[in-house]
Amino acid sequence: MENNPKIRSSDYLPEDLIAQILVNLPSKSVVKLIVVSKLWSSIIRSKSFIDLYLERSLTRPCLLFSFHRINRRFFHSISQEAISEEATPECSYTNTSSFPLSLDTRLPPLSYNVCTPVRGLICCQDLDDVVVSNPSTGQFLVLPKLNTKRKQISRFFGYDPIEDEYKVLCMTVLQVSYDYGPVVSEEHQVFTLGGTEKKKEATWRMITCKAPHCPATEGICIDGVVYYGAWPNSKNRGSLIVGFDVRLEEFTLVKLPDGVEIYYSLDSELVNYQRKLAVANLSYRGKFELWVLDKQEWSKISVMVPSWKYLFGRDLFRCRGAISSGEFIFTPLLSAWASVIISYDRKEEIARRVEIEGVEDRAHYMKVFLDHVECPILL
After folding, report:
1. Helix, strand or coil for residue 49?
2. Among 199, 240, 249, 305, which residue carries the largest CB count within 10 Å?
3. Residue 35 class from Cβ within 10 Å (0-12 exposed, 13-18 middle, 19+ buried)?
4. Closest Cα partner for 74 from 62, 85, 65?
5. pLDDT digit string (tens) for 81-109?
6. Is 121 helix (H, G, I), strand (E, B) or coil?
């Protein structure tokens, strides 16, 4: 080997050993290594490696912070385990925990309407463009222009685990009546991105929706179905939940619990609660309700977070769901208080205030997402 300085590690390391080494690296480092050799590029781009990497990442989910600063969209992630490990069972509340903020991942200027991350990728809007991005690698892909001249567009992002495909669903709104009259969504279009093997033609396709409605909340993807709150195409005041099957590209309607309504995304939110669909309301002075759908039946969880005034002193927080440890995560309603989150362990009766260092008042459109995972997919 000393007589051949051009020999490479890939010439004598087995492929499975190379893959095991790479799977332990940060995804941002992994994608840079595709230039090492054709073999390394082949390994990193393979479905088996990406599945192996995601399998490992799913055991270490993160909180993903997304915000605007200096006319750019930035992302920052924190291990959910780090949040849980800070808890101390000796008291009902603990002192402030702080985590530093990095500004090394960004999207094009003016990007907004960031969808909930799906298996490591996110979708957002940049002016009239729809953008899919991998926050772990800093890559982004601008999709072709939508086949519409309308400006009012709703966007949802989902993943089909059977066909291993990501899909973006867009629909335009023809009419919104604020007196609870008929509302209509039209021009339902789908764009398909192959998961690890891009095999679909890169174009928008029109699909049919047999249940006219108007989206009212952001969406969340659970087990191949994208759910979002909506208003029906009728004069009654009832709201509902729409489920979009990513593989079949079909819409179904889900009835809300009696007495529960979704008027707009600020007062109610759909969240993932232990891989089940849930509807969470705003937390007022530490009190909130969570409705969980399990086998077509709704059940209610009522929560009162202790020491709420001591922890923050503000009234309105949003429940973002629960992390793998069972802790509920709350974020402030207004972005002016974006540097604070509240975690609450219902079983241990421990509530904590967590501050993110480096987030200033100039950080706008702050959003926090649960269960984000690192993903080495190349866009």
Report:
1. helix
2. 305
3. exposed
4. 65
5. 776 665 444 333 333 333 344 444 445 54
6. strand
Looking at residue 349, its pLDDT comes to: 82
pLDDT confidence of 129, banded at 50, 70, 90? confident
Query: pLDDT tens for residues 156-165?
Result: 999 999 999 9
Nearest CA to 378 out of 63, 35, 15 is that of 35
pLDDT at 8: 52
What is the radius of gyration, based on Cα positions, of the chain? 22
Q: What is the pLDDT, as a whole number, of residue 367?
A: 79
Q: Is the dihedral of CA 196, 370, 191, 142 positive or negative?
A: negative
Angle in degrees, CA 343, 345, 348, rounded to 5: 145
Angle 111-114-116 (CA atoms, 0-180°, nearest 5)? 160
DSSP assignment, residue 10? G
| β pairing state of 97-99 and 350-356 | parallel
Instruction: Annotate 105-134 with b (16+ C-beta within 10 A) or e (fewer).
Output: bbbeeebebbbbbbbbbbbbbbeeebbbbb
Give the integer Cα–Cα distance in Å for 260 and 47: 43
CB contact set of 277 (below 8 Å; sequence gap of 6+): 220, 222, 227, 241, 254, 270, 292, 293
Could you tell me the two tokens for 275?
């891989």
Residue with tokens 């480096």: 358
Per DSSP, 34 falls in state G
In the block, residue with structure tokens 């200033």: 360
Locate tokens 């309607």: which residue? Answer: 253
Q: Show the beta-strand stretches assigned E in 195-339.
A: 204-206, 213-215, 220-222, 225-232, 240-245, 250-254, 268-273, 276-284, 287-294, 297-304, 316-322, 328-332
How would you label 136-160 residue by residue, b for 16+ Cβ within 10 Å and e otherwise?
Answer: bbebbeebeebebeeeebbbbbbbb
Q: Tens digit of pLDDT for each residue in 347-361?
A: 888 888 877 666 555
- 293, two tokens: 């759908």
Selection from 40, 19, 55, 78 nearest residue 357 by Cα: 78
User: Which range has the top average pLDDT, 60-69, 132-141, 305-314?
Assistant: 132-141
Neighbours of 301 (CB within 10 A): 15
Residue among 33, 72, 119 nearest 374 (CA): 119
